[in-house]
Write a structure and sequence with these properties.
By secondary structure, the protein is mainly beta. It has four helices and 28 strands. β5 and β6 form a beta hairpin.
Length: 451
């Protein structure tokens, strides 16, 4: 097995370290700070999370102790809100508690489990018909650092109703349109230690609204007051949806007042549906392949991927005419990508995948000792970020490996046969970015990490 590129990787590593020593930021601390300030949706948090399906409405509320937090949720009349929901997100070094959901008892109480070395605590309190609230603790970045509480009370005000109507170009109602709604961030000018504030995610994910036969939708949890602005995101299988929050409403001059008096009308236009069949090198159908549209599915709003069915078939939701990047990822075959000019005449794109190559990385320290469990993230491929290996609810799992084994070996046996740019990271070592590799079956790449 060849390892002729050791010098190249070592040279690149020292270049990255030199940038760090010169004062360039290799760690996205500013990005992390912005996450907490702007209430980015929980599914896009920067830390790894661990959902616990065993925590919920049937769990007996525990008495608080030094490793827990007693939450009480009251209504506007100071009475407890039985059945109120608490979503807690905890960032800690060991163990990372992640995201957990709780339901308040008849006294409006629940107990949140904490971590001993906690760095960030974020909580959302909600109850149907009331304004959901968000509270955040991040002592390291607060102007006046606060200790993590062991008791906390949310008081939820009654919500107000907003809504509207979705129709097509002919003025006909569109039934079954998915409507997500958020506030323009009310805390964008304030510090981390101002809390609680209204939760900006009014109808998001599983809580999205769906238009009825008259194309109408409504929600009843909006905060009162003219200070609040609303952004909606529409989607429908047959119509072109919003590419970003508020795209259609901004183009059509729909304002907050029309949402409040329920006269808001947004027009969606019919689009083109791209479909195709994915086969392997032998011409056999490839089921469960991930088919991606766009150049950065992780950061782009909404889902940007679909899976093939048992016969290898896929179909995208409606898209506007024009150029579209389509990427296919299927374990065992090399990823493939095409740029499609989507027109009424070109609404199909089939792919026949080729066998992949073996990419083998060996991580060692300056003494030549193996470094286990090094994280590996794909940064770029073919000039874009459509190829990814994030393990995150925001994207479908491509099953591309994300971590080295206990011997410091990272192996991806079905990598593409052209350049892939990676970043590598391990707690206690300097992160390396922009490392470019081309998979070769008989080549092993050694990557040296420094502390």
């Amino acid at each position: 097995m060849q390892n002729s590129r050791i010098g190249l990787i070592t040279q690149r590593k020292w270049f990255v370290v030199a940038l760090a020593l010169a004062g360039f930021a290799l760690f996205p601390e500013q990005t992390m700070l912005q996450v907490a300030i702007s209430q980015d949706e929980p599914k896009k948090a920067w830390a790894a999370t661990e959902d616990d399906p065993n925590v919920g409405a049937n769990e007996k509320v525990q008495e608080p102790d030094e490793d827990s937090l007693r939450i009480t949720v009251l209504g506007p009349d100071d009475k407890p809100l039985a059945g109120a929901k608490i979503h807690a997100a905890i960032w800690a070094k060991n163990p990372p508690k992640g995201n957990r959901d709780y339901v308040c008892d008849a006294r409006g109480r629940t107990t949140v489990r904490l971590a001993q070395d906690m760095e960030i605590l974020r909580m959302w309190a909600s109850k149907e018909g009331h304004v959901s609230l968000f509270a955040n603790w991040w002592p390291k970045h607060e102007a006046n650092p606060r200790e993590f509480p062991h008791e906390y009370t949310f008081q939820l005000e009654e919500g107000t109703t907003i809504g509207g109507r979705v129709q097509n170009e002919a003025g006909e109602p569109i039934e079954g349109a998915r409507v997500q709604v958020r506030l323009v961030d009310p805390n964008r000018e304030n510090g981390l230690d101002q809390h609680p504030i209204p939760n900006i995610w009014l109808a998001y994910g599983n809580d999205a609204r769906t238009t009825d036969a008259q194309g109408k939708w409504a929600l009843h949890t909006a905060p009162a007051g003219d200070d609040f602005e609303f952004l909606v995101m529409l989607s429908h299988p047959d119509y072109i949806g919003d590419s970003h929050w508020g795209t259609l409403q901004t183009e059509q001059n729909v304002d907050a007042a029309s949402f409040r008096d329920l006269t808001a009308k947004i027009v969606m236009h019919r689009g083109l549906k791209l479909s195709g069949i994915i086969t392997d090198a032998e011409g056999k159908a490839v089921p469960n392949a991930v088919v991606i549209w766009g150049d950065d599915p992780y950061l782009q709003e909404g889902s940007q991927e679909v899976r093939t069915d048992a016969k290898g078939r896929y179909q995208f939701p409606a898209k506007p005419a024009g150029e579209l990047t389509v990427t296919v990822v299927a374990p065992g075959s090399a990823p493939d990508q095409k740029r499609i000019e989507l027109t009424t005449e070109t609404s199909k794109a089939d792919f026949q995948l080729k066998p992949g190559k073996r990419l083998l990385l060996r991580f060692i320290d300056t003494n030549g000792e193996a470094i286990p469990d090094v994280g590996v993230a794909i940064e770029e491929w073919r000039g874009g970020k459509a190829l990814y290996n994030h393990k995150h609810p925001n994207v479908l799992d491509t099953q591309i490996p994300t971590i080295a084994d206990k011997k410091g070996i990272y192996e991806w046996t079905w990598a593409p046969n052209d350049e892939v740019t990676l970043s590598v990271y391990k707690e206690g070592y300097r992160e390396l970015r922009n490392l470019t590799f081309t998979a070769e079956d008989e080549t092993e790449f050694e990557v040296i990490l420094t502390q």
